[in-house]
Amino acid sequence: MLRFRFDNRFVRELPADPLTSASPRAVLGALFSRVAPTAVAAPRLVAYSREVAALLDLDETTVQSQEFAQVFGGNAVVGGMEPYAANYGGHQFGHWAGQLGDGRALTLGEIINSAGQRWELQLKGAGPTPYSRRADGRAVLRSSIREFLCSEAMHHLGVPTTRALCLVATGEGVMRDMFYDGRPRIEPGAIVCRVAPSFIRLGNFELPASRNDIGLLRQLVAFTIDRDFPWLVADGRAAGDPDVVAAWFAEICERTARMIVEWMRVGFVHGVMNTDNLSVLGLTLDYGPYGWIDNFDPNWTPNTTDAGGRRYRFGQQPDIAYWNLEQLANALLPLLEQTRLREGLQHYVATFSSGMRDAFARKLGLASCTDDDVDLMHDVQELLERGEVDMTVFFRRLAALDPDAPSLAPLHVAFYDEAKRTAEASAFQAWLGRYVSRLASDPLTRDERRRLMDAANPQYVLRNYLAQQAIDRAEQGDESEISRLLELLRRPYDEQPDHAVYADRRPDWARHRAGCSMLSCSS
Ligand code: AMP
Ligand code: MG
């Protein structure tokens, strides 16, 4: 039996939309709308994360039960759940987009687990809400597989993220025009249950501020601090106290900086860093047309919708996160002096730069990172770009370099293009020479260095083509690759000899294939 202890603070403490129909509308003066999931034809569990099940105190029998698929397919609302869609706005691709809201996400409730932790359960793809505008509130299997796998893969890589409990097939088709080329097709539908302490986004604050509803803004800020940042008021201060709000904003900036450092460390490209897709808790949120860097290319974005301006390209993510935080700062202006908001933004800059230094030190296997080491890293990144070299393979293999005889040969497998490798060989050799002479002045032993590097440079990431292979097979009825990848990516830093092929650079056939190198927002 599915039994949770619910404590639905969001709906209990914040103002609700008085209407309960799912018809699209502007929702003023309220932070959410009550709306139930829409039932589907044949919900069936495809995969689940055992770690997340454990967080929610769910045992295997419960997860495999009919009731579980019914509830997480949106066909049953069990006692204590109070489903709602949140009302938020956002800046999309640099422009204010007004009210957006949960158009196909729907929170079932907030549970308290046996360890006393609060977890919000949210279905993605469970049907229309007042925020669905002209869309259907559904999600296709391919994007649901991607969100499910990547949420868990990121967690195991040590990147702050929302989690995913399960992936449920709906047994219904969903119409999508994948490349916006006027050739829609029916695709299998699915629902992911996402799990996080909070799904509040930067855009939740921007919307009431944009409407000059300062009372509502103040209420949401106080609520968020009380529920999601309780340590800031542990000394008895009120959540509305300007010092508390300033500390809160600085903490959001800090968490965002830490998250971006981790993205840059592992080669993750979010793809749609709109302010409605950034969590106040600094969790990676809303896995849409995201992608992983294969050959190191700061200009790469997986998102075809963004192909023109490349706003959300890999190398620009740190600046975009700052820009997004500036939008939040603007929204908070009615509550806080500008200087304090500027201090928060400065905190982003400082945290990001020290975090990046730390990441560089770990990736290169150095006890600490000097200014020269930053140059050393930037120089190799330039070479990786010019030489078309796989980021993940290169850094992982760098740990095996013999400092007494630094040779490029063991790194050949990281190169995508023979001609470029030959052309850049001497530049790489020169860099390796600089690197080993730097290692000579570093206090770490060879073993210590290897351990440090192996814990910072993953062996396995969810390469775009790997996710696409799991999708292709699942669409043909074989879902086994989903669980295989989930299992593999639970230990991304470990050598797994039976799965060595998953650590190889992207195969040539995947270079320009849809889903492997480019994705649209259609999901
Ligand atoms: P995204 O770029 O996926 O974060 O979505 C931006 C906005 O569009 C959000 O308000 C989503 O809830 C909404 N949205 C995206 N896809 C759908 C869909 N299939 N049905 C309803 N709303 C959607
Ligand atoms: Mg979104």
Describe the protein.
By secondary structure, the protein is of the alpha+beta class. The chain has helices spanning 9-13, 50-55, 60-63, 66-72, 141-157, 202-210, 214-228, 242-266, 317-332, 338-364, 371-386, 391-398, 418-440, 446-454, 464-475, 480-488, and strands at residues 32-34, 44-48, 84-86, 89-92, 95-99, 105-112, 118-124, 139-140, 163-176, 185-196, 268-269, 291-292. Strands 2, 6, 7, 8, 9 and 10 form a six-stranded antiparallel sheet that branches. It has a two-stranded antiparallel sheet with strand order 1-3. Strands 4-5 form a two-stranded antiparallel sheet. Helix 6 (202-210) packs across helix 9 (317-332), helix 9 runs antiparallel to helix 10 and helix 11 (371-386) packs antiparallel against helix 13 (418-440). The longest helix has 27 residues, at 338-364. It binds adenosine monophosphate and magnesium ion (MG). Adenosine monophosphate (AMP) is lined by residues 100-104, 131-132, 135-138, 272, 276-277, 286, 288, 521. Magnesium ion binds at residues 276-277, 286.
Overall structural domain count: 3
Find the count of extended strands (DSSP E, 2+ residues).
12
Q: What ligand molecules are bound, each kind once?
A: adenosine monophosphate, magnesium ion
Write down the overall mean pLDDT: 97
Give the proportion of residues in helices: 25-40%
Radius of gyration: 23 Å
Helix-strand sequence: HEEHHHEEEEEEHEEHHHEEHHHHHHHH
